[in-house]
Write a sequence for this structure.
């Protein structure tokens, strides 16, 4: 499958990994939108949030466990941070392998653009 995040998972595209286990990988975003900008992805290819099912949802729960650990490691847990999932074209999902942006280190506005 021609998926850049699957290639990051298999190592054929390099990344700056900040966390890895059997089912989850986190790496810094190539185009950071905040002082801390990490992408947390399931290693298995799930195209978007539309494709979460009872069969694969355990990895989503695990991603949020990893996010809590990473927030502490990255020093953003106390000040706060934002976790974002863009689903589909209208939300601006450019990579069709579901991922969560973890953004921190600055103030964020609401509503998002
Ligand atoms: P989204 O627009 O929500 O699909 O987010 C995709 C994100 O992937 C963007 O923030 C890109 O900067 C990031 N990205 C694309 N290619 C790479 C890469 N090879 N390594 C790290 N981040 C990437």
């Amino acid at each position: 499958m021609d998926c850049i995040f699957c290639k990051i998972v298999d190592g054929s595209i390099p990344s700056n990994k900040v966390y890895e286990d059997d089912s989850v990988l986190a790496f810094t975003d190539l185009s950071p939108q905040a002082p801390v900008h990490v992408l947390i992805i399931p290693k298995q290819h799930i195209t978007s949030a539309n494709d979460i099912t009872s069969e694969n949802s355990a990895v989503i729960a695990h991603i949020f466990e990893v996010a809590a650990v990473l927030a502490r490691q990255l020093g953003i847990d106390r000040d706060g941070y934002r976790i974002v999932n863009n689903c589909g074209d209208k939300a601006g999902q450019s990579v069709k392998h579901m991922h969560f942006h973890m953004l921190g280190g600055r103030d964020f506005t609401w509503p998002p653009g």
